Amino acid sequence: MLFFLNKLYVKISKFLSYVLRHNPERFGIQLDSRGYADLGAVLKILNEKFTNVEIDKDLIKDLIRKSDKKRFEINNKTIRAFYGHSINKKINMAEIKNPPDKLYHGTTKWSYKKIKHEGLKSKGRQYVHLSQDLKTARKVAKRRTNNPIILEINVNQALKNGVKFYKSGDMYLADTIPSDYLNILVS
Fold first, then answer.
1. How far apart are the C-alpha atoms of 21 and 35, rounded to whole Å?
2. Cα torsion for 131, 133, 139, 143, to the nearest 10°?
3. Which helix (DSSP H) or strand (DSSP E) does residue 79 occupy?
4. DSSP of 110-136, one letter per residue?
5. In terms of CB atoms within 10 Å, which of 1, 3, 5, 143 comes out highest?
6. Model confidence over 1-37: pLDDT tens digits?
7. What is the reported pLDDT for 1?
8. Are both 103 and 34 inside the same structural domain?
9. For residue 185, what pLDDT is reported?
10. DSSP 3-state of 81
C-alpha cells in the first residue's frame, strides 16, 4: 500500500507541477500575481485526471509534507507552485532582506563562457535559481553535465549594490546576478 501511495504522490506531484508551473491556461486556471490558484479548481482538475482516488486538500497537504522538495504551498483556499515556472506571466515573489551570505549555482563549462561575461540571467525561466549549499548546486548541474562548474555568489556585495533575492520553497531566486558577484569554485 505504501509503495502505491508513494508512486501515486509522484504522479500527482508531476501533474500538479505541469498545471501550476507550465500550463495553467490550458486547464482554465488563473494565477494571481504571486502564483496562487483557486485550490477548489485545481482539486477538480486533479480528480478528473486521477479517477482511482479522491484527491482533497488533506491529501495534497500530505503530499507536500512527505515530499523531499517543497514544490507547493497551500494558503487557505489557494495553492501555488514555488519555482520553475515557464509560463508567460511573471510570478511576483516577496523579497527577502537576510539571505545567506553565500549562495551557489551549478552550470556547464559551455554556459560558464557566457556567464563570466554576462552574469547569471533567467533565460527561459522567470528567475535565476540558486542553492544554499554546494551539494544541491552540484546535483542540479549534473542534470546537464558530468563535469559541473559551481559558482559561489557573494550575496552581501550583491545586496549592497541593489540585487534583490527571493525565497521559494528550498530555492533562492534573483532576477539576475552580474558577473562581478560570481566566483568559480569547481571546474
1. 9
2. 30
3. strand 78-81
4. HHHHHHHHH-EE-TTSSSEEEBSSHHH
5. 5
6. 344 457 888 899 989 988 988 888 889 999 887 788 9
7. 39
8. no
9. 85
10. strand
Does some domain include residue 91? no
For the segment 153-180, the average pLDDT, to the nearest whole number, is 91
Tell me: do 116 and 61 sit in the same domain: no
d(CA 101, CA 141): 21
Distances (CA, A) of 27 to 22, 88, 128, 163, 169: 11, 15, 27, 35, 24
- Work out the pLDDT band at 47, boundaries 50, 70, 90: very high
Task: Say if CB 69 and CB 169 are below 8 A apart.
Answer: yes
User: How many percent of the chain have pLDDT more than 90?
Assistant: 52
Amino acid occupying residue 139: K
- Host domain of residue 144: 99-186
- Chain centroid to Cα 30, Å, comes to 19
Give 152's strand partners. 104, 183
Cα–Cα distances (Å) from 26 to 3, 30, 50, 101, 151, in that order, read 31, 10, 17, 40, 37
Do 6 and 69 belong to one domain?
Answer: yes
| Interatomic CA distance for residues 20 and 60, integer angstroms | 14
* pTM for this predicted structure: 0.62
Residue whose C-alpha cell is 509534507? 65
